[in-house]
Amino acid sequence: QNQIVTAAHQVSDQQSRVRPIQTGDPYVLPPAIMNTLPSRQESQSSWQERVTLVPSTLKKMLMQSYGGLSSSLVRSLLSAARLTPDQPAETLNQADWDRLFEVWQRWLLCLEKGEFFPGWAEGGYTVLDWEGIAPVADIHALLNQYYSRELNLQQFDRIQNQIRQKLRGVLDKLRQKASTFERRLDQSAQADQQRQQADLLMAYSYQWQPGVTQLTVDDFETGEPITLAIDPDKTAIQQAQRLYKQHQKLKRAKDAVMPLLAEVQAELTYLEQVEAALSQIPTYDEPADLEALNDIRNELIQQGYMTSPDYRPSERKASDEGFRQLQTPDGLPVLVGRNNRQNDLLISTVATDYDLWFHTQEIPGSHVLLRLEAGQVPSDRDLHYVADLAAYFSRARQADQVPVIYTQPRHVYKPKGARPGMVIYKHETVIWGQPRRIERQADNANPLELAQT
After folding, report:
1. From CA 95, how far away is CA 87, in angstroms rounded?
2. Which residues on adjacent β-strands are paired with residue 369?
3. Which residues contact residue 354 at a Cβ distance below 8 angstroms, ignoring those fewer than 6 apart?
4. Is the dihedral of CA 340, 345, 348, 350 positive or negative?
5. Is residue 233 in a domain?
6. Are 76 and 168 contained in the same domain?
7. Where are the beta strands (DSSP E) in 152-298?
8. Is the domain of 282 the same as that of 340?
9. What is the mean pLDDT of residues 83-109?
10. What is the mean pLDDT of residues 338-350?
């Protein structure tokens, strides 16, 4: 029917008067290129005369003089000739023009012979021999790898922003709720004081006289004189009864608020653990980063904090591929969980009785597993290195010293009904980790690369 069914990119007539493209419009062939096409047979004098006909910047001159050129191609040609796109034509000497024409001819020869040189270039990929940093044999593999990374990067940024916004909103509400409960508990702390005052008023009620506004009596516990305020419209016994009622009210409020506060604090602890895991994946560097981020999102969906119409629960088997894999100075393998799912897997599936489990003490962070063989004893240097890693992959990364505990995996338990990543432990040993030691290694290299297996 010669009609556009759909288009990946809609172009309105306001955007292009030459060729608007919109769903439902009649399909029209691209307009013919009106400008002169580049030719390897054209002499340098003719080429240079054409380019310099209307003096401007080099990029504009080349693109206005010839058809079929893209901005990125022109920038690449100028860069290869050691020139800049915004450089005015009058600043070039003949040696500059000779150099630019030589690059121009090299490009046309590649087109003519169909000889291209795929490889990685600064900021992306190239098929031109002067741009490549690392050559690649298969251009299809190059394009697949490049665009897979670009798509993963876009997906990573989108999911990361979604999780950050959700966590920020939920954590702010929980912290406000916890603050409210704590204020109510502070008020409830006055309950015992009011009961003591009521007891004193009842004991010394015989001293009360009509119209008095205060009564000074001896405290039962200290024997020191204490002055009690009295409503002039009430007797001492009526004032005591009023204080008893307030005491009961505050006591009931305390009993009701304490479990609510404990529940909010437990939820805060869990979400701060999730937030700590998210902070350990600030940028996309490899597919494992996107996988770890998807695990965090899926966990939040399962816990009811996020929704997604395309979410499908999946049970992936544990493998060492997703964990951060490091080595101690003495060559012992170390696994670091990237999120709560991996943290749980380290204990439930991966760890053996010979390993050692590390975690920052009372601070959200990654679970770290030092792998050991039967009878193998780690050196103090290795223990301190793993403690540094546990501190580095925690919310206390910026601290100078961080308390870290370690114990055997059989002493780490997950309570029934506990949220992902939440465990209790016993028979632990405390060791001080210094995350800055790991951070200092990053001055010259990625700390993960320094010990990567």
Report:
1. 15
2. 335, 357
3. 372, 373, 374, 375, 376
4. negative
5. yes
6. no
7. 214-218, 225-229
8. no
9. 95
10. 93
* Averaged pLDDT score across all residues of the chain: 88
110 burial class (0-12, 13-18, 19+ CB within 10 angstroms)? middle
**373: containing domain:** 317-451
pLDDT band per the 50, 70, 90 thresholds, residue 407: very high
Helix or strand run (H / E) with residue 318: none
Across 238-261, average pLDDT: 82
122: CB partners within 8 A, 6+ apart: 131, 133
37, 60, 129, 156, 438 from 284: Cα distances, Å: 41, 36, 29, 7, 20
Cβ atoms of 59 and 71 within 8 Å: the answer is: yes
Q: How confident is the model at residue 195, as a pLDDT?
A: 78
Determine phi and psi for 88, rounding to 5 degrees: -70, 150
pLDDT tens sequence across 122-172: 888 999 888 888 999 899 999 999 999 999 999 999 999 999 999 999 999
> Please, which pLDDT band fits residue 432 given cuts at 50, 70 and 90?
very high
Are residue 269 and residue 374 in the same domain, yes or no? no
Kindly tell me if the per-residue pLDDT of 411 is higher than 50. yes
Going along 374-444, which residue ranges are E strands? 402-407, 412-413, 424-425, 429-433
- How far are the Cα atoms of 110, 181, 192, 328, 333 from residue 256, in angstroms, in the given order? 80, 10, 16, 50, 49
Region 4-8: mean pLDDT is 89
Q: Is 305 part of any domain?
A: no
For residue 380, give Cα distances in angstroms to 353, 385, 451.
20, 8, 17
Number of domains into which the chain is organized: 3
Q: pLDDT per residue over 378-391, tens digit each?
A: 999 999 999 999 99
Which of 134, 154, 187 is the C-terminal boundary of a domain? 134
Q: At what angle do helices 58-65 and 44-51 cross, to 10 degrees?
A: 110
- pLDDT category at 316 given cuts 50, 70, 90 is low
Cα 297 to Cα 144: distance, rounded to the nearest angstrom: 26
Measure the CA–CA gap between 73 and 128, rounded to whole angstroms: 10
Q: What is the Cα–Cα distance from 382 to 331, expressed in whole angstroms?
A: 9
Amino acid identity of residue 426, one-letter, is: K
Strands 356-360, 333-336: pairing kind: unpaired
- Tell me phi and psi for residue 119, to 5 degrees: 180, 170
